[in-house]
Write a structure and sequence with these properties.
Elements lengths: L11 E2 L2 E2 L5 H32 L1 H8 L1 H4 L10 H12 L4 E6 L8 E6 L7 E7 L6 E8 L6 H12 L7 H28 L15 H28 L5 H11 L38 H14 L6 E4 L8 E5 L10 E4 L6 E5 L6 H14 L4 H28 L24 H17 L1 H26 L1
Antiparallel strand pairs: 1-2, 3-4, 4-5, 5-6, 7-8, 8-9, 9-10
């Protein structure tokens, strides 16, 4: 961080041993300290809200049981009949946009409508008992996942603190720095365990320790068990971000790792790539309003003969004149089934099809990573694991601040919080080390712009702290 003079290697400064010049480890120690101190609040909020979100797929099954489920019936209304019932209920207030038939006996169908004022990716859903036609609910749903109001509220809290686009910087800052802090902590843990006499204390807290050593032991032992989960959440979370996410998308396009897109044009192919996040947080096309309810049944039957073999499907009429109908599977749980077809609504001929089996490996990994991050790939098990990882990350942040507080000087004048690790960590670095640090900082700053900007902020804080300390030493 700074190149000011450092103490002799054999002395201990501010509680940090300097047995021998280890410039890279000491650099990571300072980075870990400042990032944890200054970005910690963002990571803490993201972890707590993420832990809540992880459980929402199961919670909404309980909270909205009446809307989502209906008594099993031997009879089955056609989609056209269910649409007619929903449209009568809507009474012209909205435009039919899509239909999600009941996936299993005992489930309700969702008749989706586009309504002015709902916002991007939101629809008005009328829940229909497919056996009797009873209207079981009328709610606003969000995104491809069809999130209901509870999950939508928590999702927006996790994503932008309900502050709109401005609030997205908080989650991107948290996701970007979480991976860096986790990697720096891993290197520090490895360096510590190589020289520690009681190595097991770094794998599980030693109950005999007290004070700072107890807090440090908990911080270190919890961290090593969740580091892989933290790195996964950081990497997948960045794909949703505004600045870093754009760089990820551009890289995937350049390497031809994109998800194949379904061609819905009736006059020729479109080579546009699909987006795994489409519908989760972005605007979607509005329907034309000219869809014939009877066509939904016919289109679904053709799709089922082609490649749609799961009950979790969405049927969407053309968004523009001259476009095809689409039927896509929306089953995010494993094994993944997201096949889709495009069908000419006039001739009922198959226009195009995209099978998940034909995705490239990078596209499949991107799909799986998103579904794992959202807690839907392996159901309740996935959600519990995410909850525990997020809770552990939140605990790490709190323990980090406790360590900082306990490192306050023992005698007056007692400052607010502990002293940072020793300065001058780059003084012992070779020329190639300085060059590598500079190049790495530039590359990370370009790839993750918010990290680059905050790194500059860290340097400013570090310089100011150094100047203040020097001024006090002269008094």
């Amino acid at each position: 961080m700074s190149t000011t003079t450092s103490p002799a290697p054999e002395t201990a400064v501010n509680g940090f041993p300097r047995r021998r010049p280890r410039w890279f480890v000491e650099l990571l120690r300072r980075l870990h300290f400042y990032a944890g101190l200054l970005v910690g609040p963002f990571i803490l909020v993201a972890a707590i809200s993420g832990a809540l979100y992880a459980l929402t797929p199961t919670l909404e099954q309980a909270v909205y049981a009446h809307e989502l489920h209906a008594p099993v019936s031997d009879s089955q209304l056609s989609l056209a009949d269910q649409i007619a019932i929903a449209e009568e209920h809507i009474d012209g207030e909205a435009t039919l946009s899509a239909v999600r038939p009941a996936p299993e006996p005992g489930d309700t169908s969702r008749i989706l409508f586009a309504q002015e004022g709902l916002g991007p990716s939101k629809s008005r859903a009328v829940f229909i008992d497919p056996g009797t036609g009873e209207i079981r609910g009328d709610l606003t749903v969000y995104g491809t996942s069809g999130a209901l109001p509870l999950r939508t509220w928590i999702d927006q809290l996790h994503r932008n603190l309900h502050l709109g686009e401005f609030g997205r910087t908080y989650s991107e800052l948290a996701a970007s720095w979480l991976g860096i802090v986790a990697l720096a902590g891993l290197v520090l843990w490895i360096a510590r365990i190589r020289t520690a006499r009681a190595k097991k204390d770094l794998l599980r807290p030693n109950p005999a320790h007290t004070g700072y050593r107890r807090v440090f032991g908990r911080h270190a032992s919890v961290g090593i068990w969740v580091v892989l989960g933290a790195l996964f959440l950081s990497a997948t979370g960045i794909t949703w971000s505004q600045y870093g996410g754009t760089n990820v998308s551009n890289l995937r396009t350049a390497l031809d790792w994109t998800t194949p897109a379904l061609d819905t044009t009736l006059d020729g192919g479109s080579d546009a790539a699909a987006d795994e996040h489409a519908g989760h947080h972005g605007a979607s096309s509005a329907p034309t309003g000219a869809a014939n309810p009877a066509t939904f049944d016919a289109v679904l039957a053709i799709a089922q003969r082609a490649n749609v073999d799961t009950g979790l499907v969405e049927i969407t009429p053309p968004a523009t004149p001259g476009a095809a109908w689409t039927v896509r599977e929306i089953k995010a749980s494993f094994p993944t089934q997201v096949d889709s077809v495009a069908i000419d609504g006039t001739t009922l001929h198959l226009v195009d099809r995209v099978d998940f089996a034909d995705y490239s490996l990078p596209a499949k990994l991107a799909r799986w990573g998103i579904d794992l991050h959202m807690g839907v790939m392996f159901g309740l098990v996935n959600q519990i694991v995410l909850f525990l990882i997020a809770a552990a990350i939140a605990a790490m942040v709190v323990l980090g601040y406790a360590m900082w507080w306990k490192r306050r000087p023992p005698r007056p004048p007692r400052r607010f919080g502990g002293t940072p690790p020793p300065r001058g960590v780059l003084r012992d670095a070779p020329w190639w080390g300085l060059l590598a640090v500079a190049a790495s900082g530039v590359l990370i700053g370009v790839w993750l712009p918010l990290v680059g900007w905050t790194l500059v902020g860290f340097l400013v804080v570090d310089v100011v702290v150094g100047l203040v300390s020097r001024h006090r030493a002269r008094e």
